[in-house]
Design a protein that fits this description.
231 residues; alpha+beta; Jelly Rolls; 2 domains; four-stranded antiparallel beta sheet; 44% helix; globular
Length: 231
């Protein structure tokens, strides 16, 4: 269940995480502090939507802990899973700035703790600091880069390369040499990599045999840097 309020500990911990990883960590300290001070804490249970496809613009969300599914559709095509995002992910800026319907849906896969930056706070910060819009453009560009990586992955012919490239993409802003554990089934990994479930299994086993991944029930653990050579 979503909680608009939070203990000071929850809010402080979420701010600390988002100040040190992802898009916001790359911004100047004064701008970073301005954003964090305007955010509200929100928590979501597995299966809850942070926002829905074609929903009203609203504001932005930064993921402090847990993982979300990012689902999108284009034209008349059915919605598909395009990403699994974890701590450091920020989303929702394009709809908030353009005041358009949501182009993607964010749904909690695990328990999620997040910071929400309301649209009216974005407007206020933008009126005080015109650099906000340029910085948000940089965030949108990073989402575009991610979409290009998705497209390039689908063009690769080798299943092992497709899976390695997909896992590197899902690592997001995690440290290259740290273990990353993504809550993802083999069926979902196949959807993200453009592979059938029957193809994913043997390719994952080959990567696991070489010590590059550890496969558990509904989760995959790996170090992004070690997988890059496979892409």
């Amino acid at each position: 269940m979503r909680k608009p309020g939070a203990s000071s500990h929850d809010l402080t911990a979420a701010r600390r995480t988002l100040a040190s990883t992802g898009w916001l960590s790359e911004q100047p300290p004064d701008f970073r502090d301005r954003i964090l001070s305007a955010c509200r804490f929100a928590a979501f249970a597995p299966g809850e939507r942070l926002y829905s496809l074609n929903g009203p613009p609203g504001g932005m969300f930064g993921i402090a802990s847990g993982y979300v599914s990012v689902v999108a559709n284009a034209g008349r095509f059915e919605p598909v899973l395009i990403y699994i995002g974890g701590p450091g992910l920020w989303a929702g800026e394009a709809a908030a700035v353009g005041k358009t319907e949501r182009r993607v849906e964010l749904m909690a896969r695990t328990r999620v703790k997040a910071l929400q930056l309301p649209a009216f706070e974005l407007e206020r910060i933008g009126s005080e600091d015109a650099a906000l819009w340029r910085r948000l453009h940089g965030l949108t560009a990073s989402h575009f880069d991610n979409a290009l990586m998705f497209a390039f992955t689908l063009k690769r012919g080798n299943p092992r390369q497709k899976i390695a490239a997909t896992l590197v993409r899902l690592a997001g802003s995690a440290a290259e040499d740290d273990d990353v554990t993504v809550p993802c089934s083999q069926t979902e990994l196949g959807e993200l990599a453009g592979l059938s479930r029957s193809t994913v299994g043997p390719a994952l086993k080959a990567l696991e045999a070489n010590g590059l991944v550890r496969v558990g029930y509904g989760r995959i653990t790996y170090r992004p840097r070690r997988l890059r050579d496979e892409t």
